[in-house]
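Following up on my earlier thread - several people asked me to post the actual chain instead of describing it. Fair enough. Here it is, all 229 residues.
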Amino acid sequence: MTAQTMQAAQAVTALLPSAPALLGFLGASLATLAVPGPSVVYVVARASAHGRRAGLYSMAGLETGAALHVVAAAAGLAALLARSPALFDAVRWSGAAYLVWLGVRELHAARARAVSAGDATGEDAAPTAPRRWRLFADGVLVDVLNPKTALFFLAFLPQFADPARGAVAPQLALLGGAFVGLAALVDSSYALLADRMSWRLRASERARRRLSRAAGGIYLALAGAAVVV
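Reply from S.P.:
Thanks for posting it. Predicted structure:
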């Protein structure tokens, strides 16, 4: 190994968290993710109402939104959000409004299927799941428009960064990326479990309508929690 290579390796290492800090971060992240939160509830609602692919695409959207929050935290934008109550409220209310729109859309779709089926058994009716790009985009917007996610990363990530090792931003980016990866594993597991537990219900059009109504109610409840909590 040449001197230049060694210097480059040392420079990269200086930008990374120490091994004890990284292990502590992973343990704290797993403990945090072990308690189901709004993201899990959202993914489970999607997967239960529309199946495994809907849950996984929604999960991918949520984690993409979380990754954007990590970038914002590393760039200092999350700190700006924390210092501006007006901006925080604007983002919070926008996120709640979007969840309300999702809930109303789901309830409207359930009602439309009930009308078209005459509220009969309709066992042969085909499900009407949202398109994949819409599932992904909904997940991104739901997470991006949740300022509490930004504040979480702003408060959580710096605890495990060491300014003495070099620039803090690359450490925050690495830690945030690790958290998002763990969150993807957890949320996707819940999506697969929800799909497995509800696939028999989705075989019935009447049960699908009930699942859609339940999903719509969950989105409205999440909107209320985003505003109140």
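The two ends are 55 Å apart (CA to CA). That should answer part of your original question.
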